[in-house]
Amino acid sequence: MGEATLLPDRGTEILIPVCAVIGIAFALVQWLMVAKVRLSNGKDSAGGRSGYTEALIEEEEGVSDHSFVRKCAEIQSAISEGATSFLFTEYQYVGIFMVAFAILIFVFLGSVEGFSTKSQPCTYDSTRMCKPALATAAFSTLSFLLGAFTSVVSGFLGMKIATFANARTTLEARKGVGKAFIVAFRSGAVMGFLLAANGLLVLYIAINLFKLYYGSDWEGLFEAITGYGLGGSSMALFGRVGGGIYTKAADVGADLVGKVERNIPEDDPRNPAVIADNVGDNVGDIAGMGSDLFGSYAESSCAALVVASISSFGITHDLTAMLYPLLVSSVGILVCLLTTLFATDFFEVKAVEQIEPALKKQLIISTVLMTFGIAIVSWISLPSTFTIFNFGVQKEVKSWELFLCVAVGLWAGLIIGFVTEYYTSNAYSPVQDVADSCRTGAATNVIFGLALGYKSVIIPILAIAVSIFVSFSFAAMYGIAVAALGMLSTIATGLAIDAYGPISDNAGGIAEMAGMSHSIRERTDALDAAGNTTAAIGKGFAIGSAALVSLALFGAFVSRANISTVDVLTPKVFIGLLVGAMLPYWFSAMTMKSVGSAALKMVEEVRRQFNTIPGLMDGTAKPDYANCVKISTDASIKEMIPPGALVMLTPLIVGIFFGVETLSGVLAGALVSGVQIAISASNTGGAWDNAKKYIEAGASDHARALGPKGSAAHKAAVIGDTVGDLSRIHPGHH
């Protein structure tokens, strides 16, 4: 049993922090490369425009270059200020909630033994003594706050980088689509690597600090570490809901008045809601998404560690095997680093057609390389056979079986990514069919879009099902936790292509607002259409991994609560399942109504400005952007509390009043229906958006037949897109 692993413990202690630091360093290098694009017209303008001596592909006719750079810089700082002030406001509110929740955790966990400070027998091995419950309560609370803080930092840094890169992408688009793609992609990579490396480093440091107190009591140590995952994900919940309400309200408000009523193009500077719309992309799709993926990542790591601590790894105190989840993530950072170089340095994107394939290759390359990476890690860090705790018994597992668990999660992620791409990219028939249905008006567009979303659920669910079956039959709950980790092991690349979307969306908005020529707008539109698809792929990853993670946590909960089986036939459990399956619908109803009412306020404000500010339509007067930003901010802060409270309080209330069995039913039910709603809503929204882009771009005869902007079919497509914005906030959590 206690055979040594090939990688000594000292090696593990060096490898994990080194990989994390390499990830952070790589992110900084990419950031410096993005920063090379100058956003000022200072002394260097003589040597060459925007800091380079490169000639622009085309000179803007009759407009001096400086006015563009200056305009872009102005718009960028407006977006950055709006996003920063929103996040600060949001974090103040959420901070209060976090402190309250932390106190709650401390009281609940500490009260187990009446706040005693004496050592007590261990839960799973009563022959040994473990640290008191009070200590575990204190350390759990600490790791909860640590997780919440890391989640906030991840989201905030992502937003800062995105608002730093958006105008630079616009300026690079003057030199060609390839240059702009590289800037947007590099800045996405900055966010991806910072997040993956930070998440890993903070967790590793926390484990080592807690060890100073816990010593050989690993069971208590890793139980206390679970707070880290909870903190990360509860923070993510608010970030996602708050940011989501913000971005959709601004988007819907801007579209309804601007495009539908006033017939001005998207991102037109005369539209008062246009800055709020671009701020929304950053706080919703970047900060929200960052926190979200960090939450899943922290939860899956913690779930795996907790199960491992009561398996043979924890009992024999085998540090290297114990930290297997962290080693997988460390190798993931190195693999993603290599993968990123393929997009930025080895193959250059030259034309519009190459953008989507380049992003797709990122997924394939990272998955293939990571498969080898996992194989190597499993070979050097696991004993050839070991046992895994499985509902009260130790189950014997071989190291290659664990490798398969991680690999199946990894490949399931790739399959989900590809299916999502097929259903949301305008290069394939599903989106083109939706666009085609716009000929007969908005109703058919909505019907086709919904059908597409429901259909797109089939393969991802089968992929998740297969990975659950394989990983559970090999290594029980530990297998499922590491499968989720496998799906998230290439998180740096996943986030890079995900953050690329909102950055190029903003770049297009800035080009339109700065009044750049049509050809530049076409380039940013092409970048943006690919971005819609990658954003949907990122959401697919987040949803898939969240499903696996919640199952692993569900398993951890069930084994902690000493239930060995959950019997569906007992009425207690069955009513739990029914109620649980209803929760995501309730949650969606709340968020959709919130978006609707916030959008309504936004529409009224935009109409008011068009009607009362003289010269706004002629472009002689400037709209009041700040007011719209304020409306979105206030609405989303106010509206994010009820859905958040619903998710956080339901388990507590059900557990206290109806007992553990009903609660296990509720958790299972919510997991099952949440995944379906989340995948279908996300893909429907992405498809409607790209159907609209498909008609606007007019790249094929079919698209041109559907008409230019302003045709009946295009108007129907815009309505579909607006509906999609309303319904795209996901309940796929917890």
UniProtKB/TrEMBL annotation:
Compartments, as annotated in UniProt: Endomembrane system
EC number: 7.1.3.1
MF terms in GO: diphosphate hydrolysis-driven proton transmembrane transporter activity; inorganic diphosphate phosphatase activity
UniProt superkingdom: Eukaryota
Protein keywords: Ion transport, Magnesium, Membrane, Translocase, Transmembrane, Transmembrane helix, Transport
Cellular component, GO annotation: endomembrane system; membrane
Presence of the UniProt keyword Magnesium in the record: yes
Main location, first listed in the record: membrane
InterPro entries: PPase-energised_H-pump
Membrane spanning residue stretches: 14-34, 93-112, 132-159, 180-207, 323-343, 363-382, 402-423, 457-485, 541-561, 573-592, 646-672
Signal peptide: none
Family matches, as Pfam families: H_PPase
Membrane topology: Multi-pass membrane protein
NCBIfam families recorded: PRK00733.3-5, V_PPase
PANTHER family in UniProt: K(+)-INSENSITIVE PYROPHOSPHATE-ENERGIZED PROTON PUMP
HAMAP family according to UniProt: PPase_energized_pump
Protein name, UniProt field: H(+)-exporting diphosphatase
